[in-house]
From TrEMBL:
This is Mitochondrial pyruvate carrier. Pfam families: MPC (PF03650). Keywords: Membrane, Mitochondrion, Mitochondrion inner membrane, Transmembrane, Transmembrane helix, Transport. InterPro entries: MPC (IPR005336). Its main location: mitochondrion. GO terms for cellular component: mitochondrial inner membrane. It is found in: Mitochondrion inner membrane. One of its GO terms (biological process) is pyruvate import into mitochondria. Belongs to the mitochondrial pyruvate carrier (MPC) (TC 2.A.105) family. Mediates the uptake of pyruvate into mitochondria. It is a multi-pass membrane protein.
Length: 108
């Protein structure tokens, strides 16, 4: 029984013998790295990088539900990418626009 399930996975159109399996698997590394960057101070976060991560996640999570066969690994990694990107952008915007600016007294 287990052998038949392994063989079914191995021979699946989105199984380990295809790029459709490995590409989303490697994208998990980007999502994990973005989660690791949660500890990074907001001033070190890059707007272009996080916009790219967010847009990629949003676009490909939609596209992954349209392609055949449905690739749920691709869908879930892109939802994670969009989520972490949105969170990082929110942190950066909150820091840049809404944080208290400390006034440095002018030297006389």
């Amino acid at each position: 029984m287990a052998a038949s399930k392994i063989q079914a996975l191995w021979n699946h159109p989105a199984g380990p013998k295809t790029i459709h399996f490995w590409a989303p698997t490697f994208k998990w590394g980007i999502s994990i790295a973005n989660v690791a960057d949660f500890a990074k101070p907001p001033e070190k976060i890059s707007y272009p990088q996080q916009v790219a991560v967010t847009c990629t996640g949003l676009i490909w999570s939609r596209y992954s539900t349209v392609i055949t066969p449905k690739n749920w690994n691709l869908f879930s990694v892109n939802v994670a990418m969009a989520g972490t990107g949105i969170y990082q952008l929110a942190r950066k915007i909150r820091h840049d626009c809404y944080s208290e600016v400390e006034e440095v007294p002018a030297k006389e």
